[in-house]
């Protein structure tokens, strides 16, 4: 099952359709949710000296009560805390009656409950889920404050209580979860604004809502390794089969960027690779890259000179993909190279300084051949009319709006998770790893994408597979602080073969 990322409204609509159109009783969905949560938490609950399930006034609270019942079935002790038994949703009222009939320990008075929370080593947070619609007030703020001050392991059901499920904004105070057990689908609020900070480790649990309901009702899909496809390599092939790439970049002060990008490209299966650099770095780059052909364009002050673009014009028709940006610098020549590359018939990949070089000529994106763009958040401000804060607040909207306006583009927006957009499709790759938060990491991604595009000629396949490979390269047995770009490049063959085996 591919995991959908939904707004609160989309998740609610899927629930409603499952109940009304597919006649699945709401209590049955809830029982599935409770069983899945219980399975995941069972070991911790068994080993806990004291656990508390804190339940709010809606169906999120009802999930918590159903989990308490499963604990009783498995002879696991836990205490239910329901602060407001007079204010319950319909399903919660049914769950609450069962709790009382089964004589499961429960408290509703605040002071003894807060003591229990202070002493607990496992807390299940079922205060608020998808339905939180206003700032948290007393007594809930005091309860959340006590949960956050405790040393307990905290698991939030569906979403950390206090987070608005669509926006990920903390409405006043918010539970700081160690784990979040998303019910049926992830919520956009897990990824936006404070969502990442409060959610802890994320899991998505199926509850029997027919998967196809999310074909329409979703904002994005979370990509997993099983969803990506390394381009096939027929043994009866020659170097032309796997694409001809021209990678353009480098400058006196940043010659490492283009070298790393080219190494990653070659390791990612390109047929032939030519590297275009300013002639002032010819010697140093040439020594590092026997595998690539070098083309030198005239330089000025350590970067490409304006007249260097003639070199690109002479060459550009020979390639399947032109990739620009790595270590190129922000100069007039960069803008000119971007313009002339986009006026070719080849696929064009614009990375780093090339995204900056595009900022005043976005109309050039309306072309026949595909364009791949790999901005980070700041570089994204050059590609749309939004400031950094607005992009950070809603990267989903930023990417989907851009991709609708520029249907030829595949956009890869890099932050602590990666968003990939193409036309109306939106994907998330979430393998956050600080090993990638370093200079050189983007150049390696650019190389991987170029290599993959050469083989599959499908920008979206190159993007989804390339981002996944890049993320997996960082998952090595080295401390993230010490991972060097070269470590990532050396990991590429290992990741390729493990993905191909799968
Ligand atoms: N079939 C299903 O639907 C399934 C649902 N499932 C589960 O249900 C969850 C969604 O349930 P939900 O819609 O009842 O929302 P939830 O967040 O529990 O309660 C919110 C209620 O609290 C109130 N309220 C809001 N803000 C407040 C505040 N600041 N301070 C105080 N009160 C506040 C407000 O009520 P009001 O006070 O406005 O009457 C609102 O109604 C979902 O996350 C998942 O866990 C699963 O079991 C699968 C099946
Ligand atoms: K919750």
From TrEMBL:
The keyword NADP applies. InterPro entries: CARKD, Nnr, Ribokinase-like, YjeF_N_dom, YjeF_N_dom_sf. Its EC number is 4.2.1.136, 5.1.99.6. Keywords: ATP-binding, Isomerase, Lyase, Metal-binding, Multifunctional enzyme, NAD, NADP, Nucleotide-binding, Potassium. Residues 11-215 form the YjeF N-terminal domain. Binds 1 potassium ion per subunit. It holds the Pfam family Carb_kinase. Its cofactor is K(+); Mg(2+). K(+) binds at residues 60, 125, 161. It catalyses: (6S)-NADPHX + ADP = AMP + phosphate + NADPH + H(+); (6R)-NADPHX = (6S)-NADPHX; (6S)-NADHX + ADP = AMP + phosphate + NADH + H(+); (6R)-NADHX = (6S)-NADHX. PROSITE patterns: YJEF_C_3, YJEF_N. CDD domains: YXKO-related. It comes from the Bacteria. (6S)-NADPHX binds at residues 59-63, 129-135, 140, 158, 257, 327, 376, 443. AMP binds at residues 414-418, 442. Residues 222-499 form the YjeF C-terminal domain. Signal peptide: none annotated. Homotetramer. Catalyzes the dehydration of the S-form of NAD(P)HX at the expense of ADP, which is converted to AMP. Together with NAD(P)HX epimerase, which catalyzes the epimerization of the S- and R-forms, the enzyme allows the repair of both epimers of NAD(P)HX, a damaged form of NAD(P)H that is a result of enzymatic or heat-dependent hydration. PANTHER family: ATP-DEPENDENT (S)-NAD(P)H-HYDRATE DEHYDRATASE (PTHR12592:SF0), ATP-DEPENDENT (S)-NAD(P)H-HYDRATE DEHYDRATASE FAMILY MEMBER (PTHR12592). In the N-terminal section; belongs to the NnrE/AIBP family. Belongs to the NnrE/AIBP family. This is Bifunctional NAD(P)H-hydrate repair enzyme. It comes from Faecalicoccus acidiformans.
